[in-house]
DNA sequence: TTAAGATAGTTGCAGATGCGACTAATGTAG
DNA sequence: CTACATTAGTCGCATCTGCAACTATCTTAA
C-alpha cells in the first residue's frame, strides 16, 4: 500500500499496528481487541501481536474488564494519542496526493462506489454466517 | 482477495501463480519473467518461484532466448491455455457478482476512476525512477 | 448446580513473499 | 579489447500473518 510507507518508515508501525492505532484513535474510546479485529477484518492473532508491540512501546495500554475477565479494554496512552494526531495530517496529505488526479466530484463518486461495494460485501458476509449457523 | 478463492480452492493456484497465468493468457504470446514482474508489480523472486511451480505442473513452459541468454521466453502449454480459458468465465462471473450492487453506469465510472488513479500512480513511479537516475 | 458450548486472547507453526546477495550474460565507455 | 555497470533470473533469509490448538472465562440449558 502506498500509504504504509508513511507510517512504516517514519514511525516504525507495520500495517496491523497502524490498524490498532487508527481504530483506537478514531473511536477515541476504549474497546476490545476483538472489536478491532472485526472492524479491520484482521485475524485476532495478528491484532494480538500488534497490541503486544504497541504496549511495549507504550502507545497502547489495556485494563481488565471487570464485567468480563476474558477481555481487555484497550486505549491509547498519552503518547499514543500524540502519535495518532501527528500521523493523521500526514496520511490525509498522502491521500490527497494520491487522489489529486481526480476532481472533487470524482473523489466523491469514488467514495460512494466503495461504500456501496463494502456494504454489499458485508451483507454477503453476514448472510454466509447466517447460513452457516442454519446449517445444523 | 475475494477472487482468489476461485482459483485457489478450485485449481490450487496461489496469487502469484495466477498472475503469471493471467499475464501469459491475456497476452497470448511469450514474454519474459521480468515483463510479468513489471506489469503485475510483483517482485521477480516471487514470479520466479511461481513460474517454477507452474512449469512443474506443466502449465507453463519456457524456451531459451537466443538473442539474450539471460532471459527465457515464457508461454502457456496447451494445458495452461485450457486452464486459462476455463478460469476466465468463472472469474468474470465472480466479478459480476461482486459488482452486482452497482448499476452498469456506476461500474463504468468505477473502472474509469481506477484507470485515472493507476495512470497517475504509474506516472509518479516513472518520475521517481527518472529522478533517481538523475541523482548522480 | 453442573456440563456443554461459545468467546477473548495467546502462541506454535507453516506458508507466502519481499529483500538483497549471487551468478551468468549483456551493454557501454575508454 | 577490457573493465565496469546493468540486467535476468535464482536462492537464502527474515518477516508477516493466517490457521488451529490451547487456556481461561462466560453463557446457557437441563
What does this structure look like?
- The structure is a homodimer of 136-residue chains.
- Chain A has helices at 4-11, 15-27, 33-40, 44-56, 78-98, 104-134, and strands at 60-64, 72-76.
- Helices cover 69% and strands 7% of the residues of chain A.
- The model of chain A is unreliable at 129-136 (pLDDT under 50).
- Chain A has a two-stranded antiparallel sheet.
- With 136 residues, chain A is mainly alpha-helical.
- In chain A, strand 1 and strand 2 form a beta hairpin.
- Chain A is globular and about 50 Å long.
- Chain A has 2 domains: 4-101, Arc Repressor Mutant, subunit A, CATH 1.10.10; 103-136.
- At the A-B interface, helix 6 of A face helix 6 of B.
- Chain A binds a DNA duplex (30 and 30 nucleotides) through helix 3 and helix 4.
Give a quick set of tags describing it.
homodimer; mainly alpha; Arc Repressor Mutant, subunit A; 2 domains; two-stranded antiparallel sheet; disordered C terminus; DNA-binding
Named at the architecture level, the CATH assignment of the largest domain in chain A is: Orthogonal Bundle
How far is the first residue's CA from the last residue's CA of chain A? 40 Å
How many separate helices of chain A? Answer: 6
Residue stretches of chain A low in confidence (pLDDT < 50, at least 5 long) are: 129-136
Helical content band of chain A: 55-70%
Please, what is the CATH homologous superfamily of the largest domain in chain A?
A: Winged helix-like DNA-binding domain superfamily/Winged helix DNA-binding domain
Q: Over the alpha carbons, how many angstroms does the gyration radius of chain A reach?
A: 17 Å
Task: Trace the largest sheet of chain A across and list its strands.
Answer: 1-2
Instruction: Tell me the number of strands of chain A.
Output: 2
Under CATH at level 1, the class of the largest domain in chain A stands as Mainly Alpha
Amino acid at each position: 500500500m502506498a500509504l504504509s510507507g508513511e507510517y512504516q518508515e517514519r514511525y516504525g508501525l507495520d500495517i496491523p499496528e497502524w490498524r490498532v492505532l487508527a481504530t483506537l484513535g478514531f473511536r477515541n474510546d476504549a474497546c476490545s481487541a476483538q472489536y478491532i479485529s472485526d472492524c479491520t477484518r484482521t485475524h485476532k492473532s495478528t491484532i494480538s501481536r500488534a497490541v503486544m508491540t504497541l504496549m511495549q512501546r507504550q502507545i497502547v495500554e489495556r485494563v481488565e474488564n471487570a464485567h468480563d475477565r476474558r477481555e481487555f479494554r484497550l486505549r491509547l496512552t498519552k503518547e499514543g494519542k500524540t502519535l495518532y494526531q501527528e500521523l493523521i495530517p500526514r496520511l490525509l496529505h498522502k491521500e490527497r496526493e494520491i487522489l489529486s488526479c481526480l476532481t472533487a466530484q470524482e473523489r466523491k463518486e469514488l467514495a460512494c462506489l466503495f461504500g456501496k461495494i463494502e456494504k454489499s460485501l458485508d451483507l454477503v458476509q453476514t448472510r454466509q454466517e447466517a447460513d452457516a449457523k442454519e446449517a445444523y
